[in-house]
Design a protein that fits this description.
about 30% helix; single chain; three-stranded antiparallel β-sheet; alpha+beta; elongated
Length: about 190
């Protein structure tokens, strides 16, 4: 039986992370070889965000509340990795605290993070930024999709890092937005 057929049978022909049935494909959970036990079936939305083709949509990833309890190790590993990428969100940190991985699965999960976060996120002065830092905007920013401009000098507390080292995430005027890290300075 092919890997894809095996995964479709295991998952009931649904994304093993969010339960969607749209655009399903096999995701080989790095850094291991392709084998049904080391792969999961994911939808196109999950795939594009896992691979960094789209920004992370925190609302979409609330599905991890259910998928992290899967009995399939590969699903647990991907759930852990996505929760780590969302660690600027309090709900993701709470879920991460509840998720238990044995030593072998923990090592597998962490080995995949090295490739994601190998380049530091820097502010306008070249200072490395970390999740949870407070930054100050050094330029007025027009916020796309919202009817306001984030003014120079605005403090953004508790930032989150994304898979793109040039972007950070933070809340301004109650909205979570993506900010180019070069337009900020660490306070």
């Amino acid at each position: 039986m092919s890997i894809e057929l095996s995964l479709k049978s295991r998952s009931g022909n649904k994304c093993e992370l969010c339960g969607s049935t749209d655009g399903l494909s096999v995701y080989e959970v790095p850094p291991v070889e392709a084998h049904a036990d080391k792969c999961i079936l994911i939808c196109s939305v999950c795939s594009s965000q896992i691979h960094g083709e789209q920004e992370l949509d925190q609302t979409h990833w609330r599905c991890l509340n259910d998928s992290m309890w899967s009995t399939t190790p590969a699903v647990q590993v991907v759930s852990w990795r996505m929760l780590k990428r969302l660690d600027s969100e309090s709900w993701a940190v709470d879920l991460l605290d509840m998720l238990y991985l044995d030593e072998e699965m923990q090592a597998w999960a962490e080995s995949g993070l090295i490739a994601v976060n190998d380049e530091p996120t820097l502010d306008c002065n070249g200072t490395p930024l970390q999740a949870g830092d407070t930054v100050i905007l050094v330029k007025d920013l027009n916020v796309k999709g919202a009817n306001f401009t984030a003014k120079r000098g605005t403090a953004v507390r508790g930032i989150g890092l994304s898979s793109n080292p040039e972007h950070i995430e933070g809340k301004i005027n109650g909205q979570r937005i993506v900010i180019i890290s070069a337009y900020t300075k660490k306070s």
